[in-house]
Design brief:
Layout lengths: L3 H12 L1 H12 L9 H13 L3 E5 L3 H6 L15 E6 L5 E6 L20 E2 L2 E3 L3 H21 L5 E6 L7 H8 L6 E4 L7 E5 L1 E10 L3 E2 L8 H20 L9 E8 L5 E2 L2 E10 L5 H15 L4 E9 L2 E2 L5 H14 L5 E3 L12 E4 L4 E2 L7 E3 H19 L4
Parallel strand pairs: 3-6, 3-7, 7-17, 8-16
Antiparallel strand pairs: 1-2, 2-6, 4-5, 5-19, 8-15, 9-13, 9-14, 10-12, 11-13, 18-19
The structure holds zinc ion.
Zinc ion binds next to helix 5.
């Protein structure tokens, strides 16, 4: 008898099994890259409203974000772009969160399936964002709907945020509205690990101005060479940051380069957009200063600007009340122990004051071609999170 509310929650998730796959696939079919989040957000808003949540939108304040060194740099104005927040009940509160934005597709012709197909095949959902992290978001939405159906107005906050992939101002602004919870879970595709920490990340833009004009006047060094010397200096900084630690957690990635139009024309401008990881002993502003210094020494005329991330490294407890509830639910339903994991990337968990863990399905090729998520793991993530939430919110069960 004592277990019947838990059984009812699990049954309510199982009843939504098909709905879960459809919701995840529907979200994948909407290309919600940076600036294009709204059609996906409408799907989330409608789902939460139908499940009985009070739903509001939260638009980041660009000026406040710019002024806060723990926020991201706004990529462009926030007109018509917002996070979705659903709330229900009171008392002890659990925040279930996911990001709706996805990274762009590169070389779509190299994908086996069309990137926005949301195809279901071989037990997997395929497409950009299937793993990172629309299936996790769908699992959390379905868990929330099941909890809302079975429990008596459970204390839930459910958010679908923008810009997790670009600075984090979606989550930052949701928390800034005063939205508080006793614990937070984020449905990143952790393969059932308890993701409790992340490294620091900053983005920088190296900007080389060139002469322009016919290559008959080309000198030995031009915009590209300055860019290359700047990147080489940052590679040396990367090596220094990783030297004292095991492995190579703090990666430099040259993710995007632009510039030039013709082999026989000197480029008027060349740009490199880079990402550098770092550890907890440095603040983002320290790393920005190091980047500026190293680039100035190596290539004095190369411009440096910062954009996107200025994220601190973070660590959350994984053995607090929500970690304990998640572990026990994971053990009950999957018969295994959920292990803690440290990420060599950042997540929105860095903005959360209380305990915050990432926990979600098994996925592959994140940010790459042929991205996928395992559908059985999506269903399992939904039931584990629903059971953990029930145990966390109503510990007397
Ligand atoms: Zn993600």
């Amino acid at each position: 008898v004592a277990s019947s509310p838990e059984d009812a929650v699990l049954a309510a998730v199982e009843r939504r099994r098909d709905e879960l796959v459809e919701l995840a696939a529907e979200l994948v079919r909407v290309p919600s890259t940076l600036g294009q989040e709204e059609p996906a957000q409408r799907i989330v808003e409608q789902y939460l409203g139908a499940a009985g949540f009070d739903v509001v939108r939260v638009t980041p304040d660009a000026d406040a974000a710019l002024a806060d060194e723990d926020a991201g740099y706004p990529p462009f104005p926030y007109d018509g772009r917002s996070s979705v927040v659903g709330t229900l009940g009171d008392g002890r509160r659990l925040h279930l969160s996911g990001h709706v934005d996805v990274v762009p597709v590169e070389e779509p012709e190299r994908w086996t399936r069309e990137p926005w197909s949301g195809a279901v095949a071989d037990g997997r959902l395929w497409g950009r964002g299937a793993g990172d992290m629309k299936a996790g978001l769908a699992a959390y939405l379905v868990a929330a709907a099941a909890l809302a159906e079975v429990l008596d107005r459970p204390g839930l906050v459910v958010s679908s945020v923008i810009e997790e992939e670009c600075g984090g101002n979606g989550m930052w602004s949701v928390l800034r509205t005063g939205q508080t919870a006793d614990a937070t879970l984020i449905g990143e595709p952790t393969g059932f690990q308890l993701g409790h920490s992340g490294i620091g990340v900053v983005w920088a833009r190296l900007d080389a101005t060139g002469e322009g004009g016919h290559a008959m006047g080309a000198a030995r060094e031009d915009a590209f060479d300055r860019l290359a010397r700047g990147v080489a200096a940052l590679r040396r900084l990367e090596a220094e940051l990783n030297e004292p630690v095991d492995g190579w957690p703090y990666g430099l990635n040259v993710g995007e380069i632009r510039g030039g139009v013709w082999p026989s024309s000197m480029p008027a401008r060349m740009l490199a957009h880079v990402r550098l990881g770092f550890g907890p002993e440095l603040a983002p502003s320290d790393v920005q200063r190091l980047i500026r210094e190293r680039v100035r020494e190596a290539a004095p005329d190369l411009g440096v600007e910062f954009e996107g991330f200025r994220a601190r490294a973070y660590t959350h407890a994984h053995d607090g009340p929500i970690g304990t509830a998640l572990r026990s639910a994971h053990r009950s339903l999957l018969g295994k122990e959920a292990e803690p994991a440290a990420f060599t990337a950042t997540t929105d968990a860095r903005f959360v004051d209380g305990d915050c863990l990432c926990y979600g399905p098994t996925a592959g090729n994140l940010h790459g071609g042929d991205e996928w998520v395992d559908l059985e793991s999506v269903r399992q993530a939904a039931v584990v999170v629903a059971l953990a939430a029930a145990r966390f919110l109503q510990p007397i069960l």
